[in-house]
Amino acid sequence: MTNSEEFVFKICVLGDGAVGKTSLIKKFTKGTFEMDYIKTIGAQFSRFNKKINEDVINLIFWDISGQDDFNFLQPLFYKESKACIIVYSLEENDLGNESFKHIENWHNELKKNCGNIPVVLFANKVDLVEENDLDTDKIQNIVNEHNFLELYLTSAKTGQGVIEAFNAIINELYNKSKNQN
Ligand code: G3D
Ligand code: MG
């Protein structure tokens, strides 16, 4: 007899175009994911399995592939999401600035559709900045203001922080589900 249990977690990944959403998912899953594209809603999903102890976790990441249009998202994208990753870019250019400003929009959109599910914030492309020069107060303020679970500095390019960041949200979901059984 085995005590192994199986869990399914859908996690939606939000953030402006080109901040690195797809690259981060690829990095975390080491490319061993199956990806499917749903044209009608401009989204793709990637499946990936992970073991924790004896249990199997089926992860399904939903990721927007369209441009920065907050209105095109359809309920199917959010439906039954258990957690969310919001990604912005630390780049010191328009993309970086705009993607930081839009965190709030993405979070509002999420809350409208999913209520209060756990959110982890990824500040991506940390390889492009000097970490010592980061305005950590500004970043910490947004984390506190929105009650995000945690903030991670990540780089899909070097891999910095990626595994830890994804595992933070996965472990949170796992521990919650496990304790309900
Ligand atoms: P998206 O899915 O959020 O739209 P992508 O973003 O994953 O497609 O990434 C957009 C571009 O940023 C890609 O460049 C990708 O290689 C790059 N990128 C993603 N994450 C990082 C990172 O952490 N550091 C750096 N330096 N670049 C990153 P291209 O040129 O392939 O379009
Ligand atoms: Mg993408």
Provide a compact summary of the structure.
The chain has 181 residues and is an alpha/beta fold. Helix content is 34%, strand content 28%.
Overview of the structural elements:
The protein is built from 6 helices and 7 strands, in the order E-H-E-E-E-H-E-H-H-E-H-E-H. With 181 residues, the chain is an alpha/beta fold. It has a single domain, classed as Rossmann fold, CATH 3.40.50. Strands 2-3-4-1-5-6-7 form a 7-stranded mixed beta sheet, sandwiched between helices. Helix 5 links the parallel strand 6 and strand 7 (150-153). The two termini are 18 Å apart. The site of magnesium ion has 4 residues, from helix 1.
With strands numbered from the N-terminus, the spatial order across the biggest sheet is 2-3-4-1-5-6-7
Number of strands: 7
- How many domains comprise the coordinates? 1
Order of helices and strands: EHEEEHEHHEHEH
- The unreliable regions are none
Please state the second-level CATH architecture: 3-Layer(aba) Sandwich
